[in-house]
Structures are given as structure tokens and as C-alpha cells.
Design a protein that fits this description.
CATH architecture of the largest domain in chain B: Up-down Bundle
Radius of gyration of chain A: 13 Å
Structural class of chain A: alpha/beta
Strand order of the largest sheet of chain B: 2-1-6-5-4-3
Helix content of chain B: over 70%
Structural class of chain B: alpha+beta
Shape of chain A: globular
Number of helices of chain A: 5
Strand content of chain B: 5-15%
CATH superfamily of chain A: Response regulator
Largest sheet of chain B: 6 strands, antiparallel
Order of helices and strands of chain B: HHHHHEEHHEHEEE
Number of strands of chain B: 6
Number of domains of chain B: 2
CATH class of the largest domain in chain B: Mainly Alpha
CATH topology of the largest domain in chain B: Four Helix Bundle (Hemerythrin (Met), subunit A)
CATH topology of chain A: Rossmann fold
Order of helices and strands of chain A: EHEHEEEHEHEH
Largest interface: A-B, 17 and 14 residues
Distance between the termini of chain B: 114 Å
CATH class of chain A: Alpha Beta
Oligomer: heterodimer
Helix content of chain A: 40-55%
CATH architecture of chain A: 3-Layer(aba) Sandwich
Number of strands of chain A: 7
Strand order of the largest sheet of chain A: 2-1-3-6-7
Largest sheet of chain A: 5 strands, parallel
Chain lengths: 124, 382
Amino acid sequence: MKKHILVVDDEESIRELLSIYLVGASYSVTAVASLDAALDAVRQEPPDLIISDLQLEGADGLQTIARLRNAVPDTPVILLTGVLFDPKAVNEVLMSKVTCYLPKTCSLAQIMDTVRRLTQAPRA
Amino acid sequence: MLFFLFIAAVLVAVAVQAVRNISHSVADSDWVNHTHAVILETEAVRSALLAADGLLHTYVLTGDARDLGACREALSEASENMDIAKALTRFEPDQNRQLVEIESMANRRADFVQGVLAARKSGTMASVREMMAADAGGTAIRDIQRKIDKLKNDELALLTARDTAAYRQAQATSWTVWTGVALDVLLLAGAAWLVRDDLAARRRAASALQEANAQLEARVQERTADLGSANARLSTENLERRWANHALEHQLRYNHLIIDSISDLVLVLTAALNISRVNPAVVRLTGLEPAELVNQPLSRVARLAAGPDGADAPLRDPIAQSLKDGRELQRQAAVVEDKRGRQTRALLSLVPLRDQDRVVGCVVTLQILTPQSSTAPAEKNP
């Protein structure tokens, strides 16, 4: 059974690249651009992992993540954003809202390592 | 192929030799039959003459006509048998000569018998007794029998020689056939061995070919797997490059967005203190386009504010000194002049740009002072 990953990002090229990469690694991927589409996707097929950008069109990424976690509270969430945070701020602020934070400047291999770790780990 | 042609040639030679020997055997058999026929006919002549002689004596004693007829019939048989024997030996001069001699003697004997018969038939018994007395010893018949015996012995000697020849011919035929069969068996055994050896060689070649094909197939599969791995690796690397490029573009765009969103005037200067880049706030305040500002000195748009005596202080030297020392300038009172010469008060800050510990330029920010601004200029840097 393939693990299902929900990718939320308003940039089409990001969604496309992540989908190609994750599907190539035998994951099932649903890629959406908005909060509403993400909520629909969660209702249709609860994901094993959510990868979300911080800045979405018409919504704040952290708010989006909060809405999604209300729907699937046990699903781990990766915050993948081009907005660089101070490491201290990440630990103090973001980690209470997401499972993991990754900058978009990291490599796909690093993203894959995190995805594997989170999809293989038992749910909280 | 040549080997089998040789085997076929041996078989043909054996067959030809066997046929020739059989033909010779048949000819020999004909000669044996012929010899027996000559002997039989000669013996028949002897029997007929002896019978005629006996019947002559009987007729002389009885005068019975039946004995006379029988005697003449016996003489006729003897003549017929002699003709047959002569015909049989017509291609054998020696035997034929002997038969002619026997025939001559038999004819004389027949003439004698005919004479006695004629005398007896005419009733002149004295003449008959005289003739019979002359033949009292039977010399003529014994001579004829000796001649016939000699001829018979000659024929039997010939028969023996021909039997010997036929036996040798049969032996030769047997040897020829068996030798040919043995030779062909040997040749066929050799051919079988060669065929077996050839089949083994073909099997070895087929096995080697199969092994080579298997190795080739394995190499192809290995190479295909390598290519597949390389292709997957290249695809991953390509995705990584696209991802990295996109991340850098995004980061750059985001940084530009941040800089362009700053309301303060931001100018990037080269080490020669010429403008290399400005943010939109500079364009908005001065009314100058970036193309009009690039490669222009900073004094084209800003200078330090006037000193205590009211004169404008030159900007070049403090900034040049700051760059030379690699230190920052903080919140220095300055004047910004737009395209039409209108002046605006501002606070100037400068931060040197370092690339591997080498100052390659600086960033100048100009915070515009409004009449309500409570921000005071900083103390002069030491």
C-alpha cells in the first residue's frame, strides 16, 4: 500500500517537482494550491503526511496547517518554505505547530529523508 | 563426404567382383553339365553298340524279326547318340577328334552287323558262321570301348579340373565378399567414430555458443541495469538541479521583494563609490530611473548635511574613509536631492560589503526625515 502525501503550495512548479520526485519514490501524491482544495483532499483520502508552504494565496500557511491538523490530528506536517526563519524562532514557535521545518533551499534528498522518517514512524 | 564415397566405391567393387565370380561359377557349372552330357552320350553309344551286338547274336540264333528290328534300332540309337556327342564337343577339337575316331570304328561295327543281319536274313548260315567266327574275339567292340573309356577318362579329368576351378572360384568369391564386408564394417565403424566425434564437437560448440549467449545476455542485463540506474540517477540529479534552481530563484525573488518593499532609500555602491543598484524608493523620491543612476557617484542623489557653519560637507571623503577602514557609518545627517533639485533631509547609514574579508563595495540606506520625525542624527563616528 502506497503512502499518501498531500502537497500544499501555491507555486505550480514546486507542486510538479515534488510530485514527480515523490511518485518516483513510490508515494501516492495529491498536490493542491489552496486551503479549500487541501481540505477537500483530506476529506477524500486522509494523507499519511502533509507538506505545506508557509505563504499561500489568500491564506496564511500556519493557519492552513492548523485547519488541516484539526481534520487529521495524527498526520505529521512538514513546513516547507522559502521564508528563512531564525533557528531559535523555529524551535520556539514553529515546532509547536508543525512536525518538521524544512527550507526550500534544502535538497530533494533531504526532503526525502524527512518524508521517509515521518512516514515510517508510528503515529503520535 | 569423401569417406562415404570411398565406402560406396568399396561396396561397388565388391559387388562387381562378386557378380563376376558368380558369372564364372555359372559358366563352370555349365561346363560341368556339358561334360556330364558328353559322358552320358558316349556311354549311350557304348550301350547301344553292346545292345546291338547282343541282339545280333540273338537274331542269328532265333531268326526272329523282332530281334532284327531291335538290333537295327540299337544301331540307330548309337548313331543318334554319336551325333549328339559330336555336337556337344564341336568347340573341343581333341574330344571331337576322339569321337570321330570312335564314330569311324562304330560305323565299321555297324557295317559288320548289317552284313551279318543281311546274311542271316537271306538264310546263308555258312556265310553267317564264317563272319561270326571272324569276329569271335570281339576285338572291335573292345577297341571301341577302350576308345570310349579314354574319352570318358579325359572328360572326367576335365571335370575334376573344372570342379577344382569352380571350388577356387567359390572360395575367391567368398573371400572377396567377406573381405569387402569386413572392410566396409571397418570403414563404417570409422565413419561412426568420426560422426560421433563430429557430433561431440558440435555439441561442444553449441554449448560454448549457448554459454557465450548467456554471458552476453547477462552482460546486456547488467548493462541495462547500469543504464537504468544511471538514468534514474540522472533523473534525480535533474530534479535536484531544477529544485535548487527554483529554490534559488524563489529566494532571490523573495529577497528582492523584501528590498523593494523597504520604504527607506537603499543604494548599493561599488568600491569606487559609484551606484550599482537602487531600490524603487530611490526612483520614487528622486524621479530618476535606475538607468540614470547606475554608474553615477552617490553625490548625484545624496550628500552629508551642512556643518555647523551651514556649508554642505562633502560626502566622498567620510564614505571613502569608511570603506577604506571597513567600518560602518550610522545615521549621519544627509540631504537627498531629486531630479528637479529639491532637497530632502535624511539619515544616512553605510555598511561595507565584504566578500571573503575583502571590501568590494557598500550598502547605503537613507531614512527620510519628516518634519514630525523625532529621530536624531547619531553622534559622529570616531
